């Protein structure tokens, strides 16, 4: 089986042959590996290529080329909204993402965000800039209620870490089956009631028509005034204008956002200066020390599953914009 | 047994009779309670007083008064360095602190600090102020090494939470007996080697002659360049000038300090503006929602222990500046 890894020329973290060699001892099917950064390298193997590994950047431009043997496209990101619509995917080819590779890092970021909100860190950072020693009050996170919206790899890891920290976790997902770290898991139809009964919300959702502005003004207004929101999924799942309005009015405790409708966040955007809003530049999920090994490991897992005729854990559902099995 | 609670007139969180009533069902000894905010109230019960409950503020001024029955002084703080030297304590009277009441809150603050350092939050806060979308890299905290210096109530809770988050924890305490959340516990004589072999340091020490500037320039220089320090004990256990020098020189990854040699931290102090240094105004430990109930609960535990003739868990060792049994 010929696997071609197409790295971007400027990729800060390309997948190298050495990365592959560290993982391929676990492979249950003989593979030949090709690695390249330009379309010529892709063209050289296109006629025999069975598995293509690539980031979403430039992928759409590669695939009109003739690839008669291609069966799998493994994308080295988790959120593939950038590739929609998926009309570029040749018929009969299965799309996979690397969901899982970022889960622990992103879950830790969510916990950091919750702790920063409950300790009032945005206001304390402001006081530090002005060299003001203020009277400040933080509270204990353990025992508070957390709603994790989206229980994929990142949401699931978030629920697990939060439970270990003593939070009481409720999950929200399309199909509300139980999760070991959640006291309850409810469907999207129960989201309104769940928002009214929580202290914190962690958003770990892909962006699709059904998640666009899922947290809008009406829904965020259901939250208690001390509530906090952390978003590590996709920016457009929150109505940013409504969120900034609520924070400006003191009707929410705080928010920590790593993702935005427009990235990079434009210099004049009000999110930069909204009180009690922490902005980070889409860095919550990737740990450069671990993401490549984790990604290659997930690829190997999926190739082994395919060899055994088992369902592919990372098969991507282009209609729902998330994994088939999440 | 007569217990008098002496609240400060301006105390934001006094212990009220209602607070006491919630806890006293667990008491194994009949008690009479008196509550007051001025010396006159104290004087009215001084001749019969057996247990005095007070914050350190103003305590020294009360005790020259005649209290022939006094056996216990329970101070509603954990760090009692403000009361040293302890020559004001009448002979035969046992001093107790409320160690334990702040442990979980402070442990959560330490975790927040570690997550902020490993995610580079000070630099990202700076970028947010300038509305700059930067290329940023965070890393995963799980799997890193944490040295908890001081394994009292706060240090112990910190070790426990950190272990639950997947950190590999080593403890440092005067008497190096094992702790369930620590892979190893070493004595102060092994501190230098432990600093060279860790990624992060959490300081949870009282201040005394033996802990003054425990982290000095030489010891902090043993840490790797990516290392981070969080201090929730007492400020003077770190040489602040040396810490700021190391951060200025980029020889440490970051620090989060909630305590300082001089509090309030003076407006012109360089800590306010040192890069990668987060300053908070001594708020890491107290949760106003829980500290009173926790404090009264600890008082009840100690009164019950005394009634049974058992060692008092919160007995304070004035020579070591910490609990006898920590």
Helix content of chain A: 25-40%
The most extensive interface, with participating residues per chain, is: A-B, 50 and 50 residues
CATH topology of the largest domain in chain A: Rossmann fold
Mean pLDDT of chain A: 95
Q: How many beta strands in the DSSP annotation of chain A?
A: 14
* CATH second-level architecture of the largest domain in chain A: 3-Layer(aba) Sandwich
CATH class of the largest domain in chain A: Alpha Beta
Oligomer: homodimer
Sketch the topology of chain A as an H/E string, one letter per element. EHEHEHEEHHEHEEHEHEHEEHEE
Shape of chain A, please? elongated
Report the biggest beta sheet of chain A as strand number plus sense, adding barrel if it closes: 7 strands, parallel
Unreliable runs of chain A, pLDDT <50, ≥5 residues?
Answer: none
Structural class designation of chain A: alpha/beta
Which sequence of strands runs across the widest sheet of chain A? 8-7-6-9-10-11-12
Estimate nothing, just give the exact number of structural domains of chain A: 2
Determine the strand fraction of chain A and express it as a percent band: 15-25%
CATH superfamily of the largest domain in chain A: NAD(P)-binding Rossmann-like Domain
SS field, number of helical segments of chain A? 10
Distance between the termini of chain A: 28 Å
Question: Compute the gyration radius of chain A: what is it?
Answer: 21 Å
């Amino acid at each position: 089986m010929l696997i071609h890894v197409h790295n971007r020329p400027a990729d800060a973290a390309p997948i190298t042959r050495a990365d592959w060699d560290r993982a391929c001892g676990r492979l249950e099917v003989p593979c030949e590996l090709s690695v390249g950064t330009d379309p010529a390298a892709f063209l050289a193997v296109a006629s025999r290529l069975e598995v293509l590994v690539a980031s979403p950047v430039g992928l759409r431009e590669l695939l009109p080329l003739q690839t008669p043997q291609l069966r799998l496209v493994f994308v080295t990101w988790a959120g593939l909204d950038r590739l929609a619509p998926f009309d570029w995917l040749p018929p009969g080819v299965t799309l996979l993402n690397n969901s899982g590779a970022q889960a622990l890092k992103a879950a830790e970021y969510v916990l950091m965000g919750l702790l920063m909100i409950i300790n009032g860190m945005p206001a304390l950072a402001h006081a530090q800039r002005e060299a003001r020693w203020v009277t400040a009050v933080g509270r204990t996170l353990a025992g508070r209620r957390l709603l994790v919206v989206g229980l994929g790899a990142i949401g699931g890891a978030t629920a697990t870490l939060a439970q270990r920290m003593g939070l009481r976790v409720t999950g929200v997902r399309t199909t509300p089956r139980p999760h070991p770290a959640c006291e309850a898991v409810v469907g999207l139809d129960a989201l309104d009631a769940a928002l009214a009964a929580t202290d914190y919300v962690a958003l770990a959702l892909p962006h699709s028509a059904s998640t666009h502005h899922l947290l809008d003004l009406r829904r965020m207004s259901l939250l208690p005034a001390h509530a906090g929101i952390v978003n590590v999924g996709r920016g457009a799942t929150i109505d940013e204008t409504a969120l900034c309005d609520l924070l400006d009015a003191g009707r929410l405790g705080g928010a920590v956002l790593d993702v935005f409708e427009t990235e990079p966040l434009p210099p004049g955007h009000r999110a930069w200066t909204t009180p009690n809003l922490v902005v980070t530049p889409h860095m919550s999920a990737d740990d450069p020390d671990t993401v490549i090994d984790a990604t290659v490991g997930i690829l190997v897992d999926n190739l082994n599953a395919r060899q055994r005729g088992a369902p592919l854990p990372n098969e991507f559902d282009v209609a729902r914009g998330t994994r088939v099995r999440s």
